[in-house]
Design a protein that fits this description.
The protein has 225 residues and is an alpha/beta fold. It has eight helices and eleven strands. Strand 1, helix 1 and strand 2 form a beta-alpha-beta unit. The radius of gyration is 18 Å and the shape is elongated.
Length: 225
């Protein structure tokens, strides 16, 4: 899944993002309400995870604005406010679920799965596709020309991010932020290594290369050179 996590507590955000990425999700993170609203309005997400108390704009106002704009992306509200009135307010603001802090990671994952199932009939697509390369977002199966391609979790996250930005140049900093969560020095060769491994799996032995290196700028997944 492609998730947007809006949370100003950097330590809590780093912990949850690491866990979500470990189970195969792609996560964008915003540390305040204004940036979170901007990403929610301009991005394409399967589920929003929104902290209630945020700087610049609170989480419930973000959800209200999205609903007013016709955006029905499922939203899970996180909050230390756990009284009945607090939960009711969160749901009436447009939240689809409300999870009180502190919470168990497994419970959060289960709630995300429920929200995804609820939204299945409304979801416009369950696959990402470029040329004959297909990533099934439900089963996580990757195929090219009908052949199954087996990827490691990090390769899968990398491919999903590239496919969601197909025909766009993706910089190293973008990959560090959204796939590696800033845990590596920009000069490290981990990106080059993973790109090389991914390219060998999705391009080697096929007629047309899809994963291109744009010298000095980054990478692009495209049918065109």
């Amino acid at each position: 899944m492609h998730l947007l996590f809006i949370e100003d507590d950097q330590e809590a955000a780093a912990w949850l993002i690491k866990g979500l990425q470990a189970v195969g999700h792609v996560v964008d993170h915003a540390a305040d309400g204004e940036n979170g609203l901007h990403l929610a309005l301009t991005g394409d997400y399967d589920v929003l995870i929104v902290d209630r108390m945020l700087p610049k704009r609170d989480g419930l106002s973000i959800i209200r604005m999205l609903r007013a704009d016709g955006d029905l992306t499922p939203a899970l509200v996180l909050s230390a406010l756990g009284e009945v009135d607090d939960r009711v307010e969160g749901l009436r603001a447009g939240g689809d679920d409300y999870l009180v802090k502190p919470y168990a990671f497994d419970e959060l994952i289960a709630r995300l799965e429920v929200l995804t199932r609820r939204n299945k009939d409304q979801a416009p697509a369950t696959q990402l596709k470029i040329a004959d390369l297909i990533l099934d977002l439900t089963t996580h199966k990757v195929t090219r020309a009908g052949q199954i391609i087996r990827l490691q979790p990090k390769e899968q996250q990398l491919l999903e991010f590239l496919m969601r930005h197909q025909d766009q140049i993706v910089t190293r900093n973008m990959l560090l932020e959204h796939v590696w969560d800033f845990h590596f020095d920009p000069q490290t060769n981990v990106i080059d290594t993973q790109i090389s491994r991914l390219r060998s799996k999705i391009d080697k032995g096929f007629d047309k290369p899809l994963l291109h290196t744009i010298r000095g700028r980054g990478y692009r997944l495209s049918e065109n050179e």
